[in-house]
Amino acid sequence: MSSEKLNMLEAINLALHDAMEADPKVLLLGEDVADEEGGGVIGVTKGLANKFGAQRVRSTPIAEQAIMGAAIGASMVGYKPVPEIMLMNFTTVAMDMIVNHAAKLRFMSGGQTNVPITIRTMTGAGMGNGGQHSDFLEAWFAHTAGLKVVIPSTPADAYGLLLSCIEDPDPCIFVETLPMYWTKGDAPERGRRIPLGQANVVRAGKDVTVITYGRQVHDAMAVARKLESEGVSVEVLDLRTVAPLDTAAILRSVSKTRSAIVLHEATKKFGPGAEISSIIHEALFSELKAPVKRIGSKFSPVPFSKHLEEAFLPGKAELEAAIRELASK
Amino acid sequence: MAEKRDLIEMFRKMALLKMNDEKLRSTIKSGRLSMPYYSSRGQEVIPAAVSVCLRKEDYICTIYRGIHDSLAKGAPLKQVWAELAGRIDGTCKGKGGPMHITHPASGVMITTGIVGSTMPIANGLAWASQLSGDGRVTIAYFGDGASNIGAFHEALNLASLWKLPVVFVCSNNGYAEHTKYSSGTAIDRISKRAESYSMPGVTVDGNDPLLMHAAAREAIERAREGGGPTLIEAITFRFYGHVFGDDDSYMSPGERAAHMEKDPYPIYRNWLLANNHATENELAAIETGIAAELEEALQFALASPYPDAAEIYRDVFQHEVEAA
């Protein structure tokens, strides 16, 4: 691993660059993605149109169904489009294309057609963007057969996972956490893919497993480090992909610690934590020291006001209390 | 005017589509097959005329009332019938059914059950052709009701901006499900909407093979030569309601009967004979051949096995990830 540091934004840009350089069939499209329009609203695709040309990096009208349809159609005949849906809430506008078409065309055609697209999108509370620009909606997509959902926690993971998504023969949704774009991490090893569907034990421990992904991996690590000095040993499992879910890694870890907490930014109610918790209970009920705990955002639209927005998100204090409770069992 | 070869080929396709519809309806009535069936009887001219202007490698995207479109493009009859029957030898192994016929080898890229969704995806196919320079044209078939959904407007705008080789073919049969055209569409001609997107738009008598052929040929040639998209509104009528089995209580009295009296099939057949483009024996031979093919397709479909339960987990992804 290089000692160089990159932020998430640079790592994603680098993955797109390397994918486009390796395969002329990789295309980018979305609102403002070309350099003439600034290389994306945050600048994630900056420089790519200048390097690879306006044919392969196309800015589009603000028309999410048109963006997704163009990506789906081109992907059915050999291209590998990476459509950007600027914010995850805007995927709702293209939901028909994503859920009824991208997810199902392989199955409904009996395997004759497939949709190798990677939908890049960004979201996350904490920027004061309010109720329609900040939701984590991964549960909706993970609930739909035919879609893969990826949420990276570090720049190096984002790079390696995005390369895997672009090369994957099926539709992937790659969720970028907006407030994390400028957070630096270790630079990725160029060309290194991280397989989809494989979780990462980012911290080994023996008392409690925290199962999480995305930004909350860092919260879990901070709490784990704090509790270590008090003799509580926390294992942190970064799922990396919500779908497919690495059930084996989850059960392996919880078999060891015999207690688990699922932590995510999506609202707790009907969230991924419910599915993961149920999987654990079905497999390991008799071995658990205590029922699996779920921690997610409050069941509310994301609020604007700063102190409300902070209260909406799952906090480190809540996680710490939950770990303490489980560790005492 | 269309060359003689196209005139006869249009007839052959119209005969196939008309007789296929009749065979399907009688087979469903007899209880041998069961499916949601959206008959396109009466609308044969449109796909017949469009298809004779297409190449085998061109693409179509069509809708649940699209069996005419798929067969006209060349989807194999036996496999299509097996698909309608939900059997493993179907085009989609019985996993798509009547609303999702797909057969890329014939250029039938998608049949969708969502009104208005052919247009955005057709754009993507056309974009791929534009990028690779393969000279293919993509047809997006849809109905009059679909012109009111946002996807139609988004797709026409993008196709025009990007000068995509796509032709939007609207079969305006006067009804969106049970709602008559004027109660659901705030403009008298759908083709006028083309002007909003700076593309040519034309309304044509979709029951007149010569006019339909001319309109389709012009639009397809324009698309193939880099001139961008066209919106064709083809006026027609569907003889058998929205879905097989519904009555015509939502139509004005006698409306359906009046249209059936103007059935484009016998009119075209008589025109071919009266103008010496074909003899009665030639046309009858085409019809007899199709009747035999249809019976063979039915028997093939009924003899094919149902898919194994394991097919539920196949084709969800290329590599199965979890049989939950």
TrEMBL record, chain A:
It holds the Pfam family Transketolase_C. SUPFAM superfamilies: Thiamin diphosphate-binding fold (THDP-binding), TK C-terminal domain-like. The keyword Oxidoreductase applies. Residues 6-183 form the Transketolase-like pyrimidine-binding domain. Its cofactor is thiamine diphosphate. CDD domains: TPP_PYR_E1-PDHc-beta_like. One of its GO terms (molecular function) is oxidoreductase activity. InterPro entries: THDP-binding, Transketo_C/PFOR_II, Transketolase-like_Pyr-bd, Transketolase_C. Keywords: Oxidoreductase, Thiamine pyrophosphate. This is Alpha-ketoacid dehydrogenase subunit beta.
